[in-house]
Design goal:
Layout lengths: L1 E3 L6 E2 L5 E2 L1 E6 L4 H11 L5 E6 L4 H5 L5 E5 L2 H8 L11 E5 L5 E6 L5 H8 L5 E2 L4 H4 L5 H7 L2 E3 L5 H9 L24 E3 L5 E7 L5 H14 L7 E7 L6 H10 L2 E5 L1 H6 L7 H6 L4 H9 L5 E8 L3 E6 L1
Parallel strand pairs: 4-5, 4-6, 6-7, 8-9, 12-13, 13-14
Antiparallel strand pairs: 1-14, 2-3, 7-8, 10-11, 12-16, 15-16
């Protein structure tokens, strides 16, 4: 199973709980810009506070927020936050942005919220300057994969090895094990655990070039059949051969969920009950039902494949 991140900016804290609270720290003369940032990001976060800078502001509020946005020179933010850093899995992320909103630079916690906040600041015109190795190389780190699947990393130390494997293109799909089981892993195996106790998975397929509105309509109508809402969706699942569909990714961003791309072998193992011509034509099982069944924690198919607008197919699994 491979995956891609969504644009929902929630980040997992050290206990694996999802939170999205940020503080914008700026000098008095820059508070108007801070308010502009808060207004621009308001729809993406549960809480955004503006704090006026003084020498102890980071120290006073350390641990209160998931991410600090320093509206200041990077040197100031680095000097004031460096002594507070202890554990990358528990420390808040830190991003700096200049007053003209030209650059958004993650300083610490790139994989733990800073990269995503920098990306969100790009909607206000700032260029996100990613320096984490996987993102700089245009690849998706393990932490980002975990986020896309609404999971959190259990053994953080392992991500050094697995992210190196991402860079070397040696890390295969995310393997899924259903319990109860006892699993013995090495130091170079990253273990992901789901954040939610329950939820549904949207399995989806499409014709090439389907737009976001077609996906959104299909998903919403399918969820209505079982009285679920977008908030109940853990992630969207589809086939690896759909990885280049921009409409699908855009729709997932609108829903606030990630996309998991399942390989042919996985989908074949969880083939759904509805016949599909794709198996006859290209050897793949029907994507929507197989993805919904494979992605669901119980491998149950709640809604069989539905086709919308002759463009998008969707099934609901749990």
């Amino acid at each position: 199973m491979t995956d891609t991140t969504d644009n929902d900016c929630n980040t997992a804290d050290s206990d694996g709980e999802v939170a999205d609270e940020i503080a914008i720290v700026g000098f008095e003369r820059k508070l108007d810009t801070a308010e502009e940032i808060r207004a621009g990001l308001a729809d993406d976060y549960d809480r955004i506070d503006v704090l006026e800078y003084h020498g102890e502001v980071f120290d006073e509020h350390w641990g209160e927020y998931d991410c600090f946005v320093g509206l200041m020179a990077s040197g100031i933010a680095m000097r004031k936050t460096a002594p507070l850093l202890d554990d990358k899995w528990a420390d808040p992320a830190v991003v700096v942005v200049d007053e003209e909103l030209t650059w958004a630079i993650p300083l610490t916690g790139g994989h733990h919220g800073a990269n995503q906040v920098a990306y969100d600041l790009s909607t206000l015109g700032a260029v996100p300057a990613m320096t984490t190795a996987s993102e700089a190389a245009g690849k998706q780190g393990v932490e980002s994969r975990a986020k896309a699947l609404d999971t959190h990393v259990v053994n953080g130390d392992s991500t050094v090895a697995t992210n190196l494997a991402v860079l070397d293109e040696e890390l295969g799909p995310v393997a899924r094990l259903d319990g109860p089981q006892a699993v013995l892993v090495g130091d170079d195996v990253t273990v992901l655990k789901r954040n939610a106790d329950d939820g549904v998975v949207l399995g989806t397929g499409s014709v090439s070039g389907a737009d976001a509105e077609q996906f959104l309509t299909a998903w919403t109508e399918a969820l209505d059949e079982v009285d679920w809402s977008p908030a109940d969706v853990e992630f969207v699942a589809t086939a690896t051969r759909k990885a280049d569909e921009p409409g699908l990714v855009e729709a997932a961003e609108e829903f606030g969920v990630g996309v998991a791309y399942l390989d042919k072998e996985t989908l074949t193992a969880f083939e759904g009950p509805t016949p599909s011509r794709s198996k006859e034509l290209i050897g793949w099982p029907g994507v929507a039902e197989a993805s919904a069944i494979a992605g669901g924690r119980h491998h149950d198919l709640l809604v069989e494949k539905r086709r919308y607008d002759d463009a998008v197919t969707v099934a609901v699994g749990r």
